[in-house]
Design brief:
By secondary structure, the protein is mainly alpha-helical. The chain has one domain (6-182). It is built from 5 helices and no strands. The chain is elongated, with a radius of gyration of 21 Å. The two termini are 24 Å apart.
Length: 183
């Protein structure tokens, strides 16, 4: 059975954690909180700057996660454990990467609608009446993409845990077999 190194597994999980934690923070804490800012354009400025900073790190983290999966030997090691679970994880991971990149693109489209990214908004998930139509569409899309990213990354983490349990079970089976032979 193939094994992935501890650094590969650690980088894979750190990337997932960064992406999940940052996205949840943005959706649950940042997006609704900017409604406290009186000026709608200032809300957009703060949101666009914060999300752009996170998307840079979040997309990079998701890229590292996928690289560890595809190039670090983790996909092969987990496929040896349970091909079906590893296959589902592969699909969810691809979807999470796609959602992360699409969300970053949508965010940039929102920010381009006003100088310095000061696109007027009601909140992080709700356009204002004066939000340009293209920005409003991108904002609604971004809200969907953020929720989809959370669901996909959470699914990947759940499958990662299930595959780790499967690895322990296989190890226990081997040790039981050896102790039966020599015990």
């Amino acid at each position: 059975m193939r094994q992935a190194s501890t650094p590969v597994r650690s980088l894979h999980k750190m990337g997932l954690g960064i992406n999940l934690g940052g996205t949840i923070f943005g959706l649950v804490a940042l997006n609704p909180s900017v409604a406290r800012i009186a000026d709608r354009s200032e809300r957009g400025l703060v949101l666009n700057e914060a999300w752009m900073r996170f998307q840079t790190i979040g997309t990079l983290a998701m890229g590292v996660t996928v690289a560890m999966w595809r190039l670090g030997g983790l996909k092969e090691a987990e496929s040896d454990l349970d091909p079906a679970l590893a296959g589902i994880k592969n699909v969810l991971l691809g979807g999470a990467l796609l959602m992360s990149v699409a969300s970053a693109i949508a965010g940039r489209r929102i920010a381009r609608q006003a100088p310095e990214g000061a696109t007027p908004v009601e909140s992080g998930a709700e356009p204002a009446p004066e939000t340009p139509e293209e920005a409003a569409r991108s904002q609604r899309l971004s809200a969907f993409l953020g929720a989809a990213t959370v669901a996909l990354v959470a699914g990947v983490l759940g499958l990662s845990s299930a595959l780790e349990v499967r690895a322990v079970e296989k190890l226990d089976e081997r040790q039981g077999f050896l102790s039966g032979l020599f015990g």
